[in-house]
Amino acid sequence: MARIPDEGMVEKRGIGHYFTHVGLIIGVLVIFFPIWLAFVASTVTQSDIISPPMPLWPGDQFLTNYSKALTSGINAPVALMLMNSLIMAMGIALGKILISLLSAFAIVYFKFPGRRLFFWLIFLTLMLPVEVRIVPTYEVVAGFGMLNSYSGLIFPLIASATATFLFRQFFMTVPDELAEAARVDGARPMRFFWDILLPMSRTNIAALFVILFIYGWNQYLWPLLITTDPSMNTIVMGIKQMFPSGDDYADWPVIMATSILAMLPPVIVVVSMQRLFIRGLVDSEK
Amino acid sequence: MATIKLDNIKKSFGKTDVIHGVNIDIEDGEFIVIVGPSGCGKSTLLRMVAGLETVTSGEILIDGAQVNGVEPMDRDIAMVFQNYALYPHMSVEENMAYGLKIAKTPKAEITERVAEAARMLQLEPYLKRKPRELSGGQRQRVAMGRAIVRKPKVFLFDEPLSNLDAKLRVQMRLEIKELQSRLGITALYVTHDQVEAMTLADRMVVMNGGVADQIGAPLEVYSNPQTEFVAGFIGSPATNFIDAALVPDAPKGASKIGIRPEHITLLPSGQGKLSGNVVFTEALGAETLVHLRMDSGTETFTVRQDGAMALPVAGDPVGVDWGADDEMAFNDKGRRV
Predict the structure, then answer these.
(1) Three-state DSSP class for B306?
(2) Are the C-beta atoms of residues B155 and B180 closer than 8 Å to each other?
């Protein structure tokens, strides 16, 4: 810990200092409480949950509930749904990054007829989220026979105007002289892209990867539409599928265990890539 | 090592003509400096030789072969950029080796050539560092090293010293000159700094508004400028110009007379060819610059005299004189008469 200087520069001292902390702690508690409840619910038995008052401290069913969720689940084993989600999220995140890197590269570094037009067309698609084009997209995917498949989960979501735009902005800050120096050095365009542009954008790529991974992981509506086979369910929609219809009873401990499990991968991605992520958003390291 | 020939090179961006036909013959091993004010097309000319800019019309020949449509990499040139253009994520070593790596030079040879260039430029302690960990002068050296290791036919320099501080600039200037003459590689160097032009050039090209006004050895250009622009641009303080009608015995056809500040002598009031008043003086130690307002009207004169001479007092009326040989007469088109 850095020692706070006695005559703090802009450091707030006294009572205000503690109030700030109390405020922050309360905020954290409010946000964390539901997650805590979910965790508690995932470690007790069904009867503990439905008999009020609900317990506030973890029970002894942790292993039972989690192993039940992971191996058998309700419709499909959670392990399988996690794998599906992982494949979809990675596919979307990496695919989006690859495609938008290449399209931004084309837009910034090549002069071709209709360059501006293409840029604005890409930009326009920003205004068309998945939900707006979901019916025609479904038609197309169904026509290609991609329902209940990884390609059906990934490809319709793989183009990203936002990422293209981001990389375009970054590429435009790269001095032209660098591209010219590479040209004089004998690098052909793809070589320049691979050897120079890509390493220079690695913090941006990392930042984008975090955002896009979470975007892919949290996809709900699209997987819900095109996966009817429980073995293709992704975890986020899978949780909803676990809710009973009609008179069935809900196996809340398993559902809560699934929720907690669903939360882990994004948390791991964010925490492990935090430093790169912040660097990518803050500086452009030229 | 190579000769370069520019044959009636023209360049236009859209409808704007920026270069109106430039002819230069560069001999093997020659150091040519292209100098001119901003926007005169000097950088564009260099970039056309590099192949980074297309040629609208005319021919560029390197070693007798026309290279108009040839990619930069196949022209066997190396270029040093104003902002150095070092690859930020590569170490000094990798920066210098990159071109050779692309050319698929054997590893051992790359290492050897990089080491040699590093020794030449005193970069050996920094080979593993990234460009951002270097000072401006060191970055400049790396950019030079990147050019040297390629062993190109031609060096192209695009204002390579303009981002350095004054002291470093003088030092790097000497190093560039020394390096170029040691390696004997033909060099084309663009600058807006006339001191660089005067000191580096075997021959200099003074560009003005897309035209090469004069091509010649620096001292030849200085003492015998062919146009009013060259007379005014080369030399600091600038040449004094005065309407020919005001000068007694001006040559025929002259509309303006130019006299270099060092060729003027101050005389007591009433003597000499013209008279004026001292506005202010700048004593620089070795020399003194005396600024005058001429009686004829708005013209101002700068006189350079030895620092040991008595300082004129501001406001004093004085006369000025110069030798007839030092007069440079220009016609109304700005050409030398």
Answers:
(1) strand
(2) yes
- CA B47 to chain CA centroid, Å, is 16
Q: Which of B69, B217, B180, B229 lies closest to B188, judged by CA?
A: B180
Q: Is residue A88 part of a domain?
A: yes
Say which DSSP state A4 is in: P
Q: What is the pLDDT of residues B96-147, one digit of tens each?
A: 999 999 989 899 999 999 999 998 888 889 999 999 888 888 898 899 899 9
Model confidence over B12-56: pLDDT tens digits? 988 888 999 899 999 998 999 999 998 888 999 999 999 998 999
d(CA B232, CA A8): 60
Chain A interface disruption, residue of B49, B81, B144, B163, most A CBs within 10 A: B81
Smallest CA–CA distance, residue B271 to chain A, in Å, is 58
Chain B residues in contact with chain A using a Cβ-Cβ cutoff of 8 Å: 50-52, 71-73, 77-79, 81-83, 85-89, 98-99, 102-103, 146, 150
Yes or no, beta carbons of B50 and A199 under 8 Å apart: no
Q: Counting one residue from A and one from B, how many pairs have CB atoms under 8 Å apart?
A: 59
Q: What angle do CA B68, B71, B72 make, to 5 degrees?
A: 100
Q: What average pLDDT does the segment B58-70 reach?
A: 89
What does DSSP say about strands B300-306 and B287-294: parallel, antiparallel, or unpaired? antiparallel
Chosen from A109, A183, A184, A203 to mutate, greatest number of chain B CBs within 10 A:
A184
Domains of chain B, first to last: 4-232 (3.40.50.300), 255-330 (2.40.50.140)
Range of the domain at A20: 15-71
B243: Cβ contacts below 8 Å, ≥ 6 apart: B255, B256, B257, B296, B299
Q: Quote the strand ranges of chain B, DSSP E.
A: 4-13, 16-26, 31-35, 57-62, 65-66, 77-80, 154-158, 186-191, 203-208, 211-216, 240-243, 256-259, 264-268, 274-283, 287-294, 300-306, 317-322, 328-330
Q: What is the DSSP letter of A222?
A: H
User: What gap in Å lies between CA B337 and CA B330, rounded to an integer?
Assistant: 5
B285-293 contact pairs (CB < 8 A, 24+) = B289/B237, B289/B261, B290/B266, B292/B318, B292/B320
Chain A residues touching B139 at Cβ < 8 A: none
In angstroms, the CA A30 to CA A20 distance is 15
Return the amino acid letter for B212.
A
> Could you tell me where the DSSP H helices lie in A147-251?
150-154, 161-173, 176-185, 189-192, 198-200, 202-217, 221-226, 235-242
Contact A231, A80 (CB under 8 A): yes
**Res. A2: pLDDT tops 70:** no
A61 and A199 inside one domain: no
Residue identified by tokens 């970039």 is B47
Residue A87 maps to which CATH number?
1.10.3720.10
A27 plus A127 within the same structural domain: no
Q: How many percent of chain B have pLDDT more than 70? A: 100
The DSSP code sequence of B166-229 is HHHHHHHHHHHHHHHHHHT-EEEEEES-HHHHHHH-SEEEEEETTEEEEEE-HHHHHHS-SBHH
CB contact under 8 A, A183 and B73: yes
For residue A183, give how far its alpha carbon lies from the nearest alpha carbon of chain B (Å): 6
CA distance B251 to chain A (A): 50
Contact A185 B85 (CB under 8 A): no
